[in-house]
Amino acid sequence: MDILFVLPGIGKKKGEKYLKSWLMEPLTIAVLSKLTPAKYGRVFLDDRIEIVDENTPCDAVAITVETYTAKRAYELAERFRRQGKIVIMGGYHVTLCPEDAAEHADVVIIGNAEGIWAGVLADIENGSFKPLYRGETAPAYGLPDRSIYADKMKKYLPVSLIEIGRGCTRKCEFCSISSYYGGRYRHRPIEDIVAEIKTCEHRIFFFVDDSIFSDKPFAEELFTEVAKLNITWTTQITLDIAGDRELLRLMRKSGCKLVLIGFESIDARNLRQMNKEWNAKLGERDELVERIHKAGINIYASFVFGFDHDREQSFAEVLRFSMRHKFFVVAFNHLLCFPGTKTYETFKSEGRLLHARWWLQKDYEYGQISFAPALVTPGELRDLCGRHKREYFTLRSIFGRLPTLFSRTKKPMLHLAYWAMNLLFHFEVDKRIGIPVGENLDEAKK
Ligand code: B12
Ligand code: SF4
User: Fold this and answer.
1) With a cut of 50, which residues of the chain have pLDDT below it?
2) For the chain: N or C, fewer Cβ within 10 A?
3) String of b and e for 70-95 (b: at least 16 CB within 10 Å)?
């Protein structure tokens, strides 16, 4: 039996290439390939960079689905089903909204693939498969099979993606990770992680955890081991790490040069609404940020706008806060009401969703607001995000932040990363807006 793995893209503007800053190696596919018994044939098509042809020889098609890629995934699924292929779907969107995917898949997988994937394939081979399987939430184990996309490696950003653990112990209401993993964090054995790091082609690593400090004693041990490998790495953390100076020191020593922090908002009322008020209670925000910078770690600051106390003024305040701290880069995104989250249910019950299944809406575009914000219109929210993002990434702002970068680090590699990321964001801010989410298949083939 032959399996075709597919990673759907979200779409492209006519005549333009897929966003460079999103072209990371598809770790999900490497993990699934590793879990696939050796007796099955396997191929991988990456919809972001190549044509996904429904005539590709195979018996079953395994598609990974996020909310943004759901429409595109369903279009592809229908094409494969017309060719008589069995379509299997899994991933965040499928787990959090299985009834949506069930309309387009023969087999729906809820949760992690570890522990069930080989059994699902055996059932398909025997013709006795069920429409739905439920995997336990589990950490990854062993080494992912990156040979499945070795031929495409040059097209991806030169960064190796590694999983340390899965989940997060916090329960922010808008967050898919919190809904998927139910407030639990489970990590891999350190030996696995170290062994994997040693096999990777690139020496810059993105540990894809959403909150790497969910288990502090483990994080300490991990950083001590990683320090021996002489690598550079980045990850996503919560601001509370700044409360632990020793952990910060270990982290820096082990090669961490940049962290993404989800500040989300600087308004305590918004943080309360999303159940992230602990982010404000941690102490003086400015002081915590300074501590991270003083430890020699740069910050990719991420904000989400559209909660009930956001008005035009809030954008200016966040921009000022970001400029004051001279963050390496920032993200000013609008709130996304992902299905399966508490925020989605609340907005739905308040009648504030503009479309219940906005991700399938015809002509839905990246940047389009799918709910009614309280103090601005959906159009204003979209424009304010764009305008303030553009402002942070003007050449004047990029140059203006340079002296601070020099005072924080002399490392040429970080200066290179600063220019690469800031220029990429400078040129791609507007390119993102208006990307069709789930483009027409015929358009995609042109
Ligand atoms: C790296 C990353 C990115 C990268 C690259 C993404 C890529 N697809 O290569 C970049 C930076 C470009 C990115 C962009 C975005 N991302 Co992102 N990203 C991640 C991140 C941190 C890691 C993904 C990963 O490799 N995980 C490791 C793999 C092994 O885990 P997994 O995918 O869950 O797979 C397991 C199971 O889910 C299941 N499974 C998954 N697929 C399938 C398929 C089958 C057939 C089966 C059987 C099982 C199965 O089995 C696997 C093993 O157990 C995740 C968070 C996370 N920790 O996972 C967010 C995450 C996927 N991103 C998210 C979001 C929202 C976005 C953006 C929309 C952000 C934005 N506002 O612009 C964009 C959309 C881009 C797009 N999809 O085209 C959300 C998705 C939520 C949702 N409901 O869909 C996540 C979950 C983050 C979050 N905190 O909510 N992202
Ligand atoms: S801390 Fe981050 S990953 Fe954890 S639930 Fe909150 S937003 Fe999600």
Assistant:
1) 441-446
2) C
3) bbbbbbbbebbbeeebbbbbbbbbbb
Structure tokens at 68: 């943004």
Contacts of 272 (CB under 8 A, 6+ apart): none
By DSSP bridging, strand 204-207 and strand 232-237 are parallel
- Per the DSSP assignment, residues forming a β-bridge with 205 are 160, 233
Q: Nearest residue CA, atom 21 of ligand 1?
A: 208
Q: 66 alpha carbon to ligand 1 midpoint, in Å?
A: 6
Q: What phi, psi does 345 have (nearest 5°)?
A: -65, -40
pTM of the complete model: 0.96
pLDDT number for residue 20: 85
pLDDT digits (tens, 9 = 90+) for 384-423: 999 999 999 999 999 999 999 999 988 898 999 999 999 9
Q: Which of 173, 177, 333 to mutate to test the pocket of ligand 2 (most atoms within 8 A of CB)?
A: 177
CA of 178 to the centre of ligand 2 (A): 6
- Give the residue, out of 172, 261, 278, with the most ligand 2 atoms within 8 A of its beta carbon, to mutate for a pocket test: 172
Number of other CB atoms surrounding residue 403 within 10 Å? 10
Separation of CA 49 and ligand 1 centre (Å): 17
Please count the residues of the chain: 446
pLDDT score, position 444: 41
- The answer to whether residues 354 and 371 touch, using CB atoms and an 8 Å cutoff, is yes
pLDDT at 16: 84
**28, 7 contact by CB (below 8 A):** yes
Give residue 284's pLDDT.
Answer: 87
- pLDDT of amino acid 439: 63
Question: What's residue 176's pLDDT?
Answer: 98
Task: Determine the pLDDT at residue 247.
Answer: 93
Residue 210 C-alpha to ligand 2 middle, in angstroms? 7
d(CA 28, CA 144): 9
Ligand 1 atom at shortest distance from the alpha carbon of 112: 53
Q: Which ligand is nearest to the CA of 425?
A: 1
Out of 92, 211, 335, mutate this one to test ligand 2's pocket (max ligand atoms within 8 Å of CB): namely 211
CA 177 to ligand 2 center in whole angstroms: 7
